[in-house]
Amino acid sequence: MANKKPTQELELGPVVTTSVAKQISERLREAIVSGRLKVGEKLPTEEGLAQSYGVSRPTIREALKRLAAQSLVHTRRGPVGGNFVSSPDPEQLAESLTGATTLLVSLGAFQFEEIVAMRLEMEGTCCRLAAEQRTDQDLVAMRAALAHQRRPDLTDEEFCAADVQFHRALANATQNGPLRFIMYAVVESMLPITNLVVFRVRERAVIIEWHKDILAAVEKRDPVAAVAALGQLVKYLGERYREALLRRQQQLP
């Protein structure tokens, strides 16, 4: 029997695995980010976009849904309605960032020591800026969170929520938009996860005391004292975290 010739290797070009709707949404997104499409500008009709890209209208609708989920496009009804470029809502985008951060923390992507170091650096910056930039309204928000935290009838979940509220108020007092955006994810994701571990071994009164000291320092516009109080709070939580892990390893209540 004659030997068969070896099959020649086919030289194939790159295979596009991304959906057409995703590719279109990415092109429109790039046009928005680059400024070629301005905030408030009306997009071509679905039919017009479909003709431009050579696809069906359902494909265009899917692409627009992807952009709407990123808060880059919104729809208006009525005779003068249509699809318009949106001004992104920082809080909505921060919530998306929070979801991703929460997932990473829950899956153990970050070591606790890394979280501690990050909090000292980033919240330390918040303390310094808050002491310099805070308004009377910021002090009211921080006092309200602290007063709520002092209530003896709070559940552990409610105490954690009050903790988050206090640190969000601290971040807001910086009057710094980018920092507030980043700290939203830090506070909303990392604080609840660490609280979930330490709530059995922490003392609420101790945490409240350090919060009171941070507030007093911010009120007096004393950044050094504010950072020092934060350092003591984070140190205490780190010790309780290690204690909680040890108890878990030893299967103690």
- Identify the overall geometry: elongated
The H/E string reads HHHEEHHHHHHH
| Name of the top-level CATH class of the largest domain | Mainly Alpha
Integer count of domains: 2
- The fold-level CATH name of the largest domain is Four Helix Bundle (Hemerythrin (Met), subunit A)
| Main sheet makeup | 2 strands, antiparallel
Structural class: mainly alpha
Report strand %: under 5%
Q: Considering DSSP H and I runs of 4 or more, what fraction of the residues is helical?
A: 55-70%
Record the strand order, biggest sheet: 1-2
The first-to-last residue Cα distance is 77 Å
Low-confidence stretches: 4-17
Kindly state the number of beta strands. Answer: 2
On the 0 to 100 scale, the average pLDDT is 85
Instruction: Report the CATH superfamily of the largest domain.
Output: GntR ligand-binding domain-like
Radius of gyration of CA atoms, rounded to a whole number = 26 Å
Task: Please give the CATH architecture of the largest domain.
Answer: Up-down Bundle
Number of helices: 10
